[in-house]
What does this fold into?
Amino acid sequence: MDKKTLKLIYAILSITLIIGVAAAYKEARESLTTLNIETAYVYPKLLYIVSPSPSYIKTVYVKPGAIVKKAQPLVMLDDSILRKTLQMYKTELENVVEREHIVEALYSAKILKIKKTISQVDSEIKALGYELKLQKERERMETNSIKNQIASEIHRITTLKTNISLLNHLLSLCNRQVKGECTVFRANLDLLRSKITYERHAINLLKEKIQTLNTIEKYIEMGIQSSIDSKKQEKLNLKATINENSQVEQLKLKQLALEMLRLENKIRATDIKISYLAIASPLNGIVYKIYRAPGTYVERGQKIASIYSPRDVLIKMILPASYIKYVKVNSKVTVYQPDGKETIPGTIISLQSSHGNISALINIPIKYKLSLKPFSPIRVKINTSDKTTP
It folds into this structure.
């Protein structure tokens, strides 16, 4: 081997040694000014999709890792039980509505019948009033007729008295001129006196007839008036019956209306529950995990799936409490990609002490968040030589 070759080998070895020593020095220097944290992991803010009601899972539309948009269907729960319940409520509502129609029809028929009876009673009251008016008119006419008869009798008595006066005068003349020959005058005078007695008796009979007639007519009028009063009371009773029935029917209708409102509320609530069975994504994000398979029964509130928004992905780092002097809010850190080659700049956004450790949350640029797998371990480097206050 010639000298040139030896010199070349010697030069290469020297350069290699220098590079190795420089790298070792750099690594040793970095080890003194940085901390490499292995207890860190990708920390997404999970949003759990839970069952709104007890049911079976009918269909799952997505898989873990799927990118979903807001309002995109995720899971469909079985709605057969709720639909049967909904149909039951609708049938009950139809029955209540039918009962309401029956109550209204019966009430209308009852009220119509009572109103017809009231109309008949009004007609009877009117007829009785007309009969009472006729009875009073008959009484007046009969009384006037008897009074006219009495007036005639009185007139005849007056005439008879006049004739008696005349006969007395003639008898007096006869006695002075023709004694013992005035028998005819005396007989006529007695006859006239007897007629006056008869006429007076007739007048008394007519007056008694008026009294009797008045008494009879009074009783007839009282009977008719009693019938009128009875019919008026019957009318009042019928109106009271209408009011009473109205109150009873209004109470029944109010109870039916409340029952309809209760069923309508149940129908609306069941419709809402059915709409909730088609579970959609509440945000634009990524499906992390599906916890239940189709056909599985889930209780209300039980987890079905979880999703997260890439914007909410952070790095969570657990440190010993002694490291508190190296970290603070807004401190800059370096996050290594899982392959360990590419680095990501990060900023500590919160610190929290728990069980002798420090929990730190690190935010990184959005463009790196999509490539990180949730809850995967990741390495973080902290620069301990940075003493500046954020």
